[in-house]
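Each record in this resource describes a single protein on a pair of labelled lines. The shape at a given residue is found from the number at the same position. The record below illustrates this layout:

***
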Amino acid sequence: MQIALVGLGKMGGNMVQRLIAGGHEVVAYDRDPKAVAAVVEKGALGATSLGDMLNKLQAPRAVWLMLPAGDPTETTLHEIVAMMQIGDIVVDGSNANWKDSQRRGQECAAKGIDFVDSGTSGGIWGLKNGYCLMIGGEVRAVERLAPVFTTLAPPNGWAHVGPTGAGHFTKMVHNGIEYGLMQAYAEGLEILEKSPFSPDLHKVTKLWNQGSVVRSWLLELAEDAFQKDPHLDSIKGWVDDSGMGRWTVQAAIDENVPAPILTLSLLSRFRSRQEESFAAKVCAALRNEFGGHAVKKA
């Protein structure tokens, strides 16, 4: 089918290539003309503006946004919807807050436009392996876009998980779980690294991926990382977050769901960004005050 894709970064550009390889006609737009030129070489039809992109689509039109969540998506969505017609579809593949998606869905519906929120997982490996797609929206819109989802995903790799907002809510929880899994691997591997045995972590992670209970794609990525840098000497232990872990923890609070592992994994990321922990200084000072325990001077 014919579809437009806005945002040709690492994921968006690869998605264009996968769609073209699957026989779809893709009209591509990005603010960076070089990014557009790159996918045109792969077989996409390039556009010079959002308006030009829409003019190159046949009605009813389908546009997929693959932009950073927040203002970039909000601004672009408003600009596109203002030029769309009744029966058109817009897909948001970003890591948007599910409440924003519900609001955007209502705004689009008021104009007769279908809004689909697609939680998208797969990262830079999606071109080769496919993307896991968690789809929220009206059934009619999802059914119409089924050929696109089927091409982008691996076998059985996409599902309609509910009404508008459900796709991004599901992806939010997915990422919250990811935080916990990553933290568990990180802590266990640090115990090994600091142990008297100091084993080869590339060898260990490769071993664990051969039939063990803890094998996973994340562990395969750890195996690759340790092969490149056995002690991760080139990397600083500063871990960012996209916001989805925070939203997952907030959802747990709102729903009275105890989620200590996911919460602590998020807080561990905050700790990684501190050059010096003031809270740790307080603990050291208190131990000195009540027990005379030694402190290390700055």
Remarks:
- The first strand starts at residue 2 and ends at 6.
- The chain has a mean pLDDT of 95.
- Residues 166-194 form the longest helix (29 residues).
